[in-house]
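Dear colleagues,

As part of the handover before I leave the project, I'm documenting each prediction I ran so the next person doesn't have to rerun anything. This entry is a single chain, and its sequence is reproduced below.
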Amino acid sequence: MQYLISALYFLGVLSVLVIAHEWGHFIAARLCGMRVDDFSLFFGKRLIRLGERNGTEYNIRSIPFGGFVKIAGMEPDDISNGVSIRTALSKKRKDVKSLIGLDTKVLEFIDPEKISEQVDEAIYASIGADSRLTPEGIEALKLLAISKTITAEEQKYIEAVLDTVNYVPDPTHYNNKPILQRATVIFAGPFMSLLFGYLLFCGMGVTMGLPTIDNTIQALGKDKANKPLPAEKAGLKPNDRIVSVNGTPINDGEQLIELIHNSTEKTPLNLLVKRGESEIPFTVTPYVDVIEGKSIGRLGFVPGSTWKRYGLVDSLGKGTNMMVAQVVGITQIFKKPKEIKDNVGGPIAIAGIIHEGGRRGFNHIVLTAALLSVSLGVINLFPVPILDGGHLLLLAIEGIRRRKLSSNGIYVAQMFGVLVIGMLFVFVMYNDLSRVFGPKH
């Protein structure tokens, strides 16, 4: 039963995060006057059509992972110039539909197999690097259209191609908006994920509370050789509460951690520990650890935590601190390649975290959702094509060169992005499966 509940939690958390992220794109597109054709939760075939409003269909699809908004004019050929002709990746191509968009209905009645090599080559040669017909190409096609060497069907084909010159850009299309508006729409998704995570942190602070380090011992650590550290050697145990250090009363976990971290002279610390109803003195000498060039004292235990409610102002501050810590934590992972394997997880790892959170209480589920939302926002800003950060990178390149990228350039960038994301997906899945089926330490 717990696994079924965890599965529902997983789908619920995923759905909420996707809706928040995509709603950012959606609302920004609407505010910028763009047409949004589809807002779907999940991918694949449509399962449920929730309805249509202001030209946007709302759907639930069959593959329960992710979601999307379909903004008019975001196909690579549209992004490059908003015309219906696509530059060919291969010069030898007979498929009319892949060369010409279906703005002209006559194309539906043209059989690509009846188009000669001569006409096919002439049309390809008439398309410039920006996927538009060149002035020279237009003149050449006009002459070819009245030539007696082509068939009536080929003439219709050429006329349809020439008709694309009269294409009128749709002002509601993404590609026809100023670059700043397009960048705003792309950035709005990650921004909404970050904002949603932040609001969850703040909302938890004034309702169910936020986890705060206290002065109890949750677990005892081991060194790299799996040998006891000072806390265990001295006789400390899980659930012990440290009430004073060198005679200084301990009021909270942050004060305790600060005192221990500042003890870098290997001087013994006199601890007064409450165990059950008894208070027991211990003497423990910290060991010195070096983190990013800074020496800190450690005793070798994991501090416990409690859930604490705050006022509105304090909750805003705590929410800000937690979001910043999550953002910094994600970026720091990639500065330490050796630690990536231990800190990066995929769907299986996320499902495991949510399953564990469900066992510990609904507040842990909400906290996990907040952390994942912030992570989703940060990761989507990575400059990898097909991610939002990749789109922003392409827009930056467009702004620098002061002209739009060709559809070919966008296709190549997207293929590179698919390759990178594919490799990352294989890595995180391998990592997840290794944690589940690999040797336990």
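Residues 78-106 have pLDDT under 50 and may be disordered. Residues 41 and 108 are 32 Å apart (CA to CA).

All the best with the project,
I.
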